[in-house]
């Protein structure tokens, strides 16, 4: 049995946050029902094409999956269980936003096997939440967190953001203390990225360029400030017993997100739903991103019609067969996101060649610059290497 | 052919006063071209000329005009380049004419180039007919302009045709003035041949096409001819005259005619502008006056952005040189930029044109180093070298003294800005010569200026300090002893040869400081701190620091979308490829060019 992970995408939001460029939108319940039906069709279709797999983690992300009514969530999980063999110890996560959960809903989640929740708080300061275009305030989050704990969830993540406009160390400290006080098992701390096509891009694009260039900014923190915010977060969380295990992820008592770690370890995963990505047999695929087309294709397949496609599945918008070079690059730039890094033996086992034969000079140079270190057969980024990981990781891309 | 029915003339004007438009209109009105064939500004052949509205190469056209007296006249109209960089070419074109039409803008009046060009025409003994153009403009004030022409130039202008070349108004008056006021050529068709070369052009099938004016004698197909300055000899294959946009062969070009000849000539260098063509068998006793070999004034390094394109750049330069004897180049190497060429140009405009043509017509991405003039370095051993590349400056201990080229500049400006312009000239080490008011509100200022002070951004500074009202022209005046030093730029302690330049010692500190500031903005932050230093000899005179990058993390990962993450990393890596590696530092191509503009802003 091949262990695999499942990612299931729910592209619906109550309201689009101003910084968000994820594939999601505001759709009514009718559309949600149609989509979930299409999604269930895809789950069946995909499972039939991937026999002999055992699912070790499921991650239902979005959008705001917790906005779906409980019967729809039930339908999805039930279909997954009917279609795939699930490890009894599987991690099953759902992304939630404050204000979209009720105790009834949470009880259904528990009963269908969901055992991990990720709550998007982002900030404990209401002015910052408003600026971000979030639908909730801090009090609403506290209420949600209480419901979650009362429903018996003992593996909970809270998302927070650093590098917000006008964010100061004091404001960040308030967020960090408000969150750590509640003792969630896991905290993800992401830096705000100004993405094209978002209202934040229109508002902050010049500031973002200035930040990148290390120049004085208007509203976003300067590069130097944002560095301090990021470092402060790290030190604060580590002091409170949260161990960083990946660039932006911290866990208490070893309760890491197994699903996410699977991405860095290149465990095969199947993406289900609109726009979701998969890695299987060294082929990376992306699903189509048009929700109407997605539903039509899925409905046609369910009706037994032949859907022509230039790809190996009508759901795919692209597929790329990874060469050995691609796979080696991924092994490095994904594996090194983990604080523990990669091991020489894994590299050798995977590619039949010594890691030094491919990356020797780069590793030596990065070690000399203090960005990388080695211990007991492991290669990993140092703290300052992680700080500039984009720069460091890009060096592991090989010339064509 | 009846010489009395020929008129050889050119049109001179300040830039934008409508020279090319008038030429087009004359060609159109005389029926040389049908309206359908008429393309705006026929004489400007190159796209670049049309776009910039300037003439780069001389062009000529033969027109038949049936005058009011019932007679048919042959007009040979020679369009001359309109920029100071091409002054010598202009003077040779003028020498091919017997008369000139002076076009003056009815609103702007006389400008610096108007004067320079009209004096040049008078120097060549040309009869000049003034024409007031753009009288359709609301701001036109022809009476004021007429008075200006009479007062400043001393030309009778009361009866000058008042025209609009754009709308075609009163063009007929111009045509009649050409017939009645310009002289017919003289010259003995049986005398020994003297034909003046005023331009040439390379054609892949015919070889070099030589544009010439026959002053004495007759040039025929089959003649054996000699270029009197270069000594090259050829058998004439074809002679002819200029139709609009085409060459029309004929049997012979007698004295007084303007036309072309071909003789399977492979190299434009053999047919220098200004040279005299004569017969091998019956040579003229002496060449026509005025020939000189033009030398480049401004040099810079041209490098392909992609090192693998070096052979392409060489081929392109060779092709451009076929048409442009003034362009010089020789291979050079730079530690920072790799293999490239040190190229010599007549001036900054010439440089820009070549650069633009290489990029546009040959699809090359170029990195250009700071332009440099030709310095004379007198060494302690008594020898002198002409320095075109700052990197080749000998050790200071070997240098006795240095000289730099000097120009005499004429700046015409409205009285409000005289102070500002004089300040500018002073800042640029100018030496005041004179100032005269040509009318109540405008003055002509003359200064001696070092050429290296005007090749960077003088023109821009002039325009900005006069709100666009100043016009400018200059002429080479020779060399002057000067305190010059080589300013080196060190990036992360390594000297970057492509950024070195020669500068007046008194302004070295200021230049060095600006260079460092500019480079600090251009060089992206690295994973380590990068000092940028300006140094004269071993002495550091300015310093800036590009701080180390502290944080660059790709925080989020969306549903395992690894391809997107990889694309971002690839972009990061690609960005580096477009940079030049100097030691550990990656310098963007643009940095090499941005330092050319060190304006006060």
From TrEMBL, chain A:
Output the SMART domains linked to this UniProt entry: Elp3 (SM00729)
What is a single cellular component term in the Gene Ontology annotation?
Answer: cytoplasm
Q: What is its main location?
A: cytoplasm
InterPro entries for the chain: Aldolase_TIM, Coproporphyrinogen-III_oxidase, Elp3/MiaA/NifB-like_rSAM, HemN_C, HemW-like, rSAM, rSAM_sf
Its localization reads: Cytoplasm
Q: Name one GO molecular function term.
A: coproporphyrinogen oxidase activity
CDD domains the record matches: Radical_SAM
Q: Where is the Radical SAM core domain?
A: 1-243
Key words, A-Z: 4Fe-4S, Chaperone, Cytoplasm, Heme, Iron, Iron-sulfur, Metal-binding, S-adenosyl-L-methionine
Give the family this protein belongs to, as stated in its UniProt record: Belongs to the anaerobic coproporphyrinogen-III oxidase family. HemW subfamily.
* NCBIfam families for this protein: hemN_rel
Report the protein name in the record: Heme chaperone HemW
From TrEMBL, chain B:
Query: What membrane topology was assigned to this protein in its record?
Result: Peripheral membrane protein
Q: Where in the cell is it found?
A: Cell membrane
Return the SMART domains for the record: EFG_C
Q: Is Lipid biosynthesis there in the keyword field?
A: no
Q: What Pfam families has UniProt attached to this entry? A: EFG_C (PF00679), GTP_EFTU (PF00009), GTP_EFTU_D2 (PF03144), LepA_C (PF06421)
Task: Name the GO cellular-component terms.
Answer: plasma membrane
Q: Which GO terms describe its molecular function?
A: GTP binding; GTPase activity; ribosome binding; translation elongation factor activity
Return the Gene3D superfamilies for the record: 3.30.70.240, Elongation factor 4, C-terminal domain (3.30.70.2570), Elongation Factor G (Translational Gtpase), domain 3 (3.30.70.870), P-loop containing nucleotide triphosphate hydrolases (3.40.50.300), Translation factors (2.40.30.10)
GO:BP terms for this protein? positive regulation of translation
Q: Which InterPro entries match?
A: EF-4, EFG_III/V, EFG_V-like, EFTu-like_2, G_TR_CS, LepA_C_sf, LepA_CTD, LepA_IV
Its top-level enzyme class, in one word, is hydrolase
Taxonomically, which superkingdom? Bacteria
Q: What Enzyme Commission number(s) does the record list for this chain?
A: 3.6.5.n1
Q: Which PROSITE patterns match?
A: G_TR_1, G_TR_2
Which residues are involved in binding GTP? 16-21, 133-136
Where does the Tr-type G domain lie?
Answer: 4-186
Q: Which UniProt keywords apply?
A: Cell membrane, Elongation factor, GTP-binding, Hydrolase, Membrane, Nucleotide-binding, Protein biosynthesis
Q: What's the catalysed reaction?
A: GTP + H2O = GDP + phosphate + H(+)
User: Major place of localization?
Assistant: membrane
User: What role does this protein play?
Assistant: Required for accurate and efficient protein synthesis under certain stress conditions. May act as a fidelity factor of the translation reaction, by catalyzing a one-codon backward translocation of tRNAs on improperly translocated ribosomes. Back-translocation proceeds from a post-translocation (POST) complex to a pre-translocation (PRE) complex, thus giving elongation factor G a second chance to translocate the tRNAs correctly. Binds to ribosomes in a GTP-dependent manner.
The record's family statement is:
Belongs to the GTP-binding elongation factor family. LepA subfamily.
Protein name from the UniProt record: Elongation factor 4
**Source organism:** Pseudobutyrivibrio ruminis
């Amino acid at each position: 049995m091949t262990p695999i992970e499942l990612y299931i995408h729910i592209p619906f939001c109550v309201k689009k946050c101003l910084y968000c460029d994820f594939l999601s939108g505001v759709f009514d319940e009718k559309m949600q029902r149609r989509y979930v039906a299409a999604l269930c069709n895809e789950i069946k279709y995909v499972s039939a094409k991937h026999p002999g797999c055992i699912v070790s983690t499921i991650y239902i992300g979005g959008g705001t999956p917790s906005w779906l009514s409980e019967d729809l969530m039930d339908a999805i999980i039930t279909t997954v269980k009917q279609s795939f063999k699930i490890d009894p110890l599987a991690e099953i996560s759902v992304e939630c936003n404050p204000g979209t959960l009720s105790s009834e809903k949470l009880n259904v989640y528990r009963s269908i096997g969901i055992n991990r929740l990720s709550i998007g708080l982002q900030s404990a300061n209401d002015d910052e939440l408003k600026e971000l275009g979030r639908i909730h305030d801090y009090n609403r989050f506290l209420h949600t967190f209480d419901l979650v704990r009362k429903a018996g969830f003992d593996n909970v993540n809270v998302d927070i953001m650093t590098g917000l406009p006008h964010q100061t160390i004091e404001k960040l400290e308030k967020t960090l203390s408000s969150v750590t006080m509640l003792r969630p098992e896991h905290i993800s701390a992401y830096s705000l990225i100004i993405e094209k096509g978002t209202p934040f891009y229109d508002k902050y694009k010049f500031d973002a360029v200035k930040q990148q260039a290390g120049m004085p900014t208007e509203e976003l923190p300067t590069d130097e400030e944002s560095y301090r915010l990021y470092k402060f977060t790290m030190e604060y969380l580590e002091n409170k017993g949260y161990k960083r295990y990946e660039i932006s992820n911290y866990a208490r008592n070893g309760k890491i997100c197994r699903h996410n770690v699977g991405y860095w370890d290149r465990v095969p995963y199947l993406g289900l739903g609109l726009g979701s990505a998969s890695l299987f047999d060294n082929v990376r695929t992306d699903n189509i991103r048009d929700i109407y087309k997605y539903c039509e294709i899925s409905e046609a397949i369910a009706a037994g019609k032949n859907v022509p496609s230039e790809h190996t599945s009508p759901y795919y918008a692209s597929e790329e067969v990874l060469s050995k070079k691609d796979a080696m690059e991924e092994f490095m730039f994904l594996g090194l996101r983990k604080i523990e890094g990669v091991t020489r033996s894994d590299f050798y086992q995977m590619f039949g060649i010594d890691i030094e034969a491919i990356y020797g000079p780069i590793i030596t140079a990065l070690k000399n610059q203090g960005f990388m270190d080695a211990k007991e057969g492991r290669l990993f980024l140092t703290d300052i290497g992680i700080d500039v990981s984009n720069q460091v990781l890009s060096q592991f891309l090989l010339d064509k | 052919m009846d010489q009395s029915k020929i008129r050889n003339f050119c049109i001179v004007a300040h830039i934008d006063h409508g020279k090319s438009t008038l030429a087009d209109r004359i060609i159109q009105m005389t029926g040389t071209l049908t309206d359908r064939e008429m393309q705006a500004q026929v004489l400007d052949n190159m796209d670049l000329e049309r776009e910039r509205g300037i003439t780069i190469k001389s062009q000529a056209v033969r027109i038949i005009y049936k005058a009011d007296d019932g007679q048919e006249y042959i007009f040979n109209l020679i369009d001359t380049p309109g920029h100071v960089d091409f002054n010598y070419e202009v003077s040779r074109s003028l020498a091919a004419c017997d008369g000139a039409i002076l076009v003056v803008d009815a609103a702007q009046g006389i400008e610096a180039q108007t004067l320079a060009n009209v004096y040049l025409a008078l120097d060549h003994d040309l009869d000049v007919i003034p024409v007031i153009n753009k009288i359709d403009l609301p701001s036109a004030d022809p009476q004021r302009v007429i008075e200006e022409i009479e007062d400043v130039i001393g030309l009778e202008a009361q009866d000058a045709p008042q025209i609009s070349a754009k709308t075609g108004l009163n063009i007929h008056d111009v045509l009649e003035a050409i017939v009645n006021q310009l002289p017919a050529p003289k010259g003995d068709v049986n005398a020994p041949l003297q034909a003046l070369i005023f331009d040439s052009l390379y054609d892949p099938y015919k070889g070099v096409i030589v544009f010439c004016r026959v002053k004495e004698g007759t040039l025929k197909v089959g003649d054996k001819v000699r270029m009197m300055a270069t000594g090259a000899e050829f058998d004439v294959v074809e002679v002819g005259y200029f139709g609009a946009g085409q060459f029309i062969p004929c049997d012979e070009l007698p004295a007084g005619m303007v036309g072309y000849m071909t003789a399977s000539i492979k190299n434009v260098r053999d047919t220098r502008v200004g040279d005299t063509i004569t017969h091998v068998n019956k040579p003229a006793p002496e060449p026509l006056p005025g020939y000189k070999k033009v030398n480049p004034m401004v040099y810079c390094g041209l490098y392909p952005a992609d090192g693998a394109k070096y052979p392409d750049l060489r081929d392109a330069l060779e092709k451009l040189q076929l048409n442009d004897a003034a362009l010089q180049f020789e291979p050079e190497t730079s530690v920072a930029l790799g293999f490239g060429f040190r190229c010599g140009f007549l001036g900054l405009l010439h440089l820009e044109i070549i650069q633009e043509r290489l990029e546009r017509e040959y699809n090359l991405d170029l990195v250009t180093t700071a332009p440099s003039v030709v310095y004379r370095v007198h060494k302690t051993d008594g020898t002198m070298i002409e320095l075109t590349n700052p990197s080749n400056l000998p050790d200071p201990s070997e240098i006795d003294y240095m000289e730099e080229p000097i120009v005499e500049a004429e700046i015409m400006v409205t009285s409000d800005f005289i102070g500002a312009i004089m300040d500018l000239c002073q800042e640029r080490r100018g030496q005041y010569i004179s100032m005269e008011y040509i009318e109540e509100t405008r003055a002509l200022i003359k200064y001696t200026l070092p050429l290296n002070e005007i090749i960077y951004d003088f023109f821009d500074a002039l325009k900005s300090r006069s709100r666009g009202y100043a016009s400018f022209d200059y002429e080479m005046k020779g060399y002057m002893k000067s305190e010059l030093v080589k300013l080196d730029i060190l990036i992360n302690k390594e000297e970057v040869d492509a950024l070195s330049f020669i500068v007046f010692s008194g302004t070295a500190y200021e230049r060095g400081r600006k260079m460092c500031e500019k480079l600090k903005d251009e060089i992206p932050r690295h994973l380590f701190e990068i000092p940028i230093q300006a140094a004269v000899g071993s002495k550091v005179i300015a310093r800036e620091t590009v701080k180390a990058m502290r944080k660059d993390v790709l925080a989020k990962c969306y549903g395992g979308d690894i391809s997107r993450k990889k694309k971002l990393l690839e972009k990061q890596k690609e960005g580096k490829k477009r940079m030049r590696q100097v030691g550990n530092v990656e310098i963007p191509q643009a940095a090499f060019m941005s330092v050319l503009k060190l304006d006060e802003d």
